[in-house]
Design a protein that fits this description.
The protein is of the alpha+beta class. Helices cover 22% and strands 34% of the residues.
Length: 286
């Protein structure tokens, strides 16, 4: 791994600027910025348009055209900095940003970009804006027995030669019920690779719907004893933005064009469930 100690100031000062740019293009952008403190010659390379274009995605011009709100920038470095924050693209149905350390693409599919069973029926799901969401609207589960959410992403939209994680982003409403009676099944598939795991959407409060759980206990034990849930159980993580996330799985994007299929479902129970608030699915480098 390249470190500040491995950059020899004296030797770099003797190199042409384009050679210094080539060297700095192989270190994280944050390190390239810090290297500008070494000397005036290195600073010139560290601030050059040529260097910061290497940190931008090859299709950054297309991404700029897809932004919902245009951004102003005077240099490629300024553009890079602005793309570090999630920006709405494709009519507000996705967000795009650049990972600060790796310069890889991060994309989030909004709930509108997902295939959600019965989501068009206002009796089962409610579409509405929500303060704190990156999207114009989210969707809240009113009540269903069949919970199924699917998402797809073509790998050409992601950075090649990169390992990605897919994350289901959600919240639980105060009225949430029936979501932790049985485990939900999560999966990710790309080409011949598929991973399957389970998750219990448990609330942090003490209210665990005791009567419901007693009523369902016999069915739960029956399903477990029939070996329907042999997958690894994963955990819920609280994000810095106040949302919760579940890692649906990971995959390696080798640069060839493939379809990534992601899903979150609980369809084996016959009980009702509600209070799940869905923001979307995020794909980011690991």
């Amino acid at each position: 791994m390249t470190t500040m100690a491995s950059i020899n100031e004296a030797s770099l000062d003797l190199l042409p600027e384009d050679c210094v740019v080539q060297i700095l293009s192989h270190v994280p952008p944050s390190l390239a910025c810090r290297s500008s403190l070494l000397s005036a010659a290195i600073r010139a390379a560290a601030e050059s348009e040529l260097l910061w274009e290497t940190f931008l995605p090859s299709d950054y011009r297309d991404i700029i055209c897809r932004l919902v709100s245009p951004i102003m920038f005077q240099s490629k470095k300024e553009l890079f900095v602005k793309l570090l924050s999630p920006l709405l693209i494709d009519g507000g149905h996705k967000t795009f940003c650049i990972d600060r350390e790796s310069s890889k693409k991060c994309l989030t599919l909004s709930a509108r970009e997902l295939s959600i069973a019965f989501a068009t029926n206002a009796l089962y799901w409610c579409w509405k804006p929500l303060l704190g969401s990156r999207f114009p609207e989210i969707v809240e589960l009113i009540m269903v027995s069949w919970l199924e959410i699917k998402g797809n992403m073509n790998t050409r939209m992601l950075s090649p030669n990169t390992t990605y994680g897919a994350y289901f982003i959600f919240k639980l409403a105060g009225r949430a019920f029936g979501l932790d009676t049985l485990p939900s099944e999560i999966s990710i598939k790309i080409g011949n690779h598929q991973s399957d795991r389970i998750i219990y959407l448990r609330q942090n409060s003490c209210n665990k719907q005791v009567m419901e759980r007693l009523f369902m206990l016999n069915r739960v034990e029956t399903l477990r004893s029939s070996r329907l849930y042999e997958q690894e159980e994963c955990t819920i993580r609280e994000r810095d933005d106040g949302w919760l996330e579940i890692e649906l799985g990971e995959f390696y994007n080798d640069g060839s064009e493939k379809e990534v299929q992601m899903s979150f479902r609980e369809v084996k129970g016959e009980h009702l469930k509600g209070g799940l608030i869905v923001e979307g699915i995020e794909l980011r480098p690991k």
